[in-house]
Amino acid sequence: MKLPKIDLEELNKQKEKNFEERLKFIDRYAEWVKKTPNKVWSSQQKELID
Cβ–Cβ contacts within 10 Å for residue 33, how many? Predict the structure, then answer.
């Protein structure tokens, strides 16, 4: 069985894109936490943890 050739350049592009998407998500979530009352987001965190 012959393994497919891996395109390292494409892999690095995907890795960079993934990293950027994660940073954008963190920014959006931080903004949501800032503008949402503590009671709302803390109850959601509690549900996630429990």
Answer: 14
